[in-house]
Design brief:
Elements: H1 2-22, H2 29-49, H3 55-76, H4 84-103
Helix pairs in contact: 1-2, 1-3, 3-4
Length: 104
C-alpha cells in the first residue's frame, strides 16, 4: 500500500511542478490553486509512505517520478526538446527509480 501511495504522491509532485510553472509567479489563480492542493496532497502522501518505507528510498522514488513526469509533460507540450541525450538520461532516471524499488 505504501508503494501505491508513493507513486500517486510522485504523480502529484509532477502536477504541482507543472502548475507552478503555469502560475506565472503565483499570479494566475487556477494554476496557483492546483499547485497548492497538489503540493499539500503530494507531501502528505510522501509522509505517510515514509511511515512504512525507508526515507532515502521513498524520497528518491518520489523525486524521480515527479521529475520524470514533469520532463515528459514538457516534451509532450513541446516546451522542451526530446534530444537523444535528454531521453537517455530520463531513461536512466526511470531505471534508477525502478532499481531502488527492486532492491528495497
Amino acid at each position: 500500500m505504501a508503494w501505491v501511495l508513493l507513486v500517486l504522491s510522485g504523480i502529484l509532485e509532477a502536477v504541482w511542478a507543472v502548475a507552478l510553472g503555469e502560475s506565472c509567479g503565483l499570479r494566475r489563480r487556477r494554476p496557483t490553486a492546483v499547485f497548492v492542493i497538489a503540493l499539500i496532497a503530494s507531501l502528505v502522501g510522501l509522509a505517510l509512505a515514509m511511515g512504512d518505507l525507508p526515507t532515502g528510498t521513498a524520497y528518491a522514488v518520489w523525486v524521480g517520478i515527479g521529475a520524470s513526469l514533469t520532463v515528459l509533460w514538457a516534451i509532450i507540450r513541446r516546451r522542451e526538446t526530446a534530444t537523444a541525450g535528454r531521453l537517455l538520461v530520463l531513461a536512466l532516471l526511470v531505471g534508477s527509480v525502478i532499481g531502488l524499488k527492486v532492491v528495497s
